[in-house]
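Q: Hi! First time asking for a complex rather than a single chain. Here are the components, and I think there are two in total. Is that enough to go on?
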Amino acid sequence: MTCLPAPGAKKLGLVIDLDTCVGCQACATNCKEWNASGHSAPLPDFKPYAAGQEGVWFNRVHSFEAGEGEAGRTVHFPRSCLHCETPDCVTVCPTGASYKRAEDGIVLVNHDTCIGCGLCAWACPYGAREMDEDQGVMKKCTLCIDRIYNENIPEAQRQPACVLTCPTKARHFGDLGDPESAVSKLVAERGGQPLMPELGYNPVNRYLPPRKKALPPSAPVEDAPTPMDIKNPLLRWMDRVLSR
Amino acid sequence: MNPAPSIVFFTTASGAGYGLLFWLGLLRPLGLVPGGQGFGLTALALALVLITAGLLSSTAHLGNPRRAWRAVSQWRSSWLSREGVAALATYVPAVLFGLGLLAEMPGLTAPMGLLAALGAAATIYCTGMIYACLKPVKEWRHPLVVPGYLLLGAFSGAALLAMLGSFWGDGAVPAALALLAGLAALVVKNIYWTAIDQAPPVATAESATSLGFIGKVRPLEPPHTETNYLLREMGFRIARKHAEKLRLLALTAGFGAPAALCAFALLVGGGMGAAALTLGAALALAGLLVERWLMFAEATHTVTLYYHGQ
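A: Yes, that's all I need. Here is the structure of the assembled complex.
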């Protein structure tokens, strides 16, 4: 069914810290690594060893410049599915292959019924969906559904591949529908932002804004000793005489 | 957006086919087109050939054409699914209309013609809504997109019916309709193109990245050095000077010239009129291909904010 389910209490998603992301591409690489053999496998690459190589990736790390001059920043910006609460990529699907799970809000594609019309990718403002042109079906971030509920791996590893691998801990996974969860508290504390809220898709993922840059320290105060700072009485007397 | 040839051909051919079916189903019961069996069956056959060729072409755009039948299931939420349902449903009255023509049963042809006309209009409406419901594409969100699809379907359908009518000696009514629709298309497309040129963007690089609080946002490094599906599908861009020339071509050769040829045919009639209407129909279809190509080529998607900053 491509009609959206009634909004659930659980909203699994990612919180991405734009302050600490260093743009190392580790999240994108580990995403590709895991998903090339997981739920969405295979994740094709075309011409991998020739000019014009390309492939399907669920996570793309852009870099932007924001602001001018001293106030300007370079910000690394990972872009992936935001698992929106009201996603048009689901409702436009003619076959029911694109769906949003009622139990945790994850947006998925059923690769067995997708006809590869591409309308969902057109309907997604964030570019979260990429066509597997080998299989002729649409693929997208699953929030590592085959990791987060996987009882065959240690509990500490039941997190999306991108979150586990981030060397600066700029990525956080959790339930954004629960105000008491660690991710919700992080969003509240740091003022986490949605992307393109004006389009009305109500994305679940949040981006933590870069912190305010520390002001450059003010110039050191010149040492200005008073005559009383001079401990030697002879020098104190000379200072007084020479200062006249 | 990428002007995929399969989709450009589909919307042009099926649009003209449904337009032809619409006018045939509507005008024949009213006795405003030639009443003979040969004319009716030829016009119906041309309409169904155009519709079917277009629909088959649209499946060429699918990654998995063999699963196309699944597309009729989600009519509750999806305009693409509704289009599929309307397109298939329209075949029923259209075929019964043809049977009525074959058996010369006016009691069957009149209601089935009207139902087929209704189905044709509904299908084109759904086609337009597929595009008009996509929020990330500002050029398609415009309120004139759906009326544009309906009007251009009516225009090309009337031009084709006028041509066929003239072969059977009377294409006056559809020629007059094509003339009016062509002039209306001139006006509507002009307003539409002016409006999309001035329309504000639906989102900005600042809102797409949530970094607007720092200042103006510019892309510094792309995430990949080669192209990808997103850039090929959504990042298609057309040079402004080409767009302006193509717009002018569609307006003059595609809409203006066929309208003038219809007016000429209405005045002179006969063999000269038939020749003018044939040329008019061919120009209308060619102009529509240009217009439909532009519909895609000029459409911009918000994902390019991440790649190009605009």
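A: The longest strand of chain B covers residues 217-221. Let me know if you'd like any chain examined more closely.
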